[in-house]
Amino acid sequence: MFKVGLSEHLLHTRYSPTALVSASYLTAVGSRVDSFWLPDHLSSLFPRSVMTPQYVGAARLAPKIDARLEPWTLLGHLATRNRLGRRRLGIGVTDASRRNPAVTAQAAATLHLLTRGRAILGIGTGARTSNEPYGVEWSKPVARFEEALATIRALWNSGGQLVTRESPFFPLRDAVFDLPPYRGKWPDIWIASHGPRMLRATGRYGDGWFPAAMAMRPKDYTAGLEKVRAAASDAGRDPMSITGAGLFFVMTGRSRGQVDEALGSHAMKAFALDISAELWARHGARHPLGDDFTGAQDIIPQTLDEHTVLSLTADVPPSLLKESLLTGTSGDVIEQVAEWRDHGVQYAVIFNVSPVQPNLRHGLAASLPLIRILGGLRNL
User: Which of 89, 115, 184, 276 is the most buried (most CB within 10 A)?
Assistant: First the structure.
């Protein structure tokens, strides 16, 4: 059975710290989706210099794109304040570089107990912008990630016994972890992975594969899922127990014309800086930040002023955004997700970027086709 989740920005709004997240959670409840997700960033992956009312209508409601709330705290708030339904709650995804894995293990186990077994620990290497500016070493993110996963599993599996474990990043010395699992089960771990080493780690440690779909095509997803499941089999695990999931960014509207207009805006062109140089090359263009630039993992957007952003994104190929996002009317988007389903995706988590456009009215009106998308995907 195909499953659907909804993810939301963690922006502090002009009117209330939780207004945006609460409204999105109610959309999730009303649409009867299977899960609700929040990202883990200290600052935005969009350049603040163009996330202003001049370029984004919704900036009148959330004027500071870098005013990010803390996700574990907010999910705990939702878990205790909103008892509607039984949808799962997840972080998409936790930063394994700046967060100590013992603290992550504690946060996930706590949420799992609060929700009676409905927490999902989404986890990945993190992004440079939430690490390097804050004094966190960024030279070996994959190695830190692997050690973080091994540490979390070691603590969860310790049964309250003291744990001593050698690690170049997170050594444990007589560490104790005595929170219980909920009815004998720890939170599922969904891993955002793309490269070969990360895919192998997903097969060894993960319960779900959770890449950002903007980094690949449907056929690439099939190949990646095969590698994850092969790694699981090599580790003596059931390869089919790993959920094939994906995070999809959606730009929708009431007509294709409205969507194309939004995609052509300066703000959405700035989104293209978060796309890897490899994908730019596929569309006959060079990434303006370098041929080896990885996109969202490498960018430090708060250092880019308005003139720089407009200059860097002057020649974004329209086809690049259309390949990296799900775009169009509700029917268009549902058809696009159906193709991903046919290539192995079992669980689509939708992140709505439709408000990132100059026209506030069109951005807000996109909530209706979004609801139609969520409902339609549940029937795939």
Answer: 89
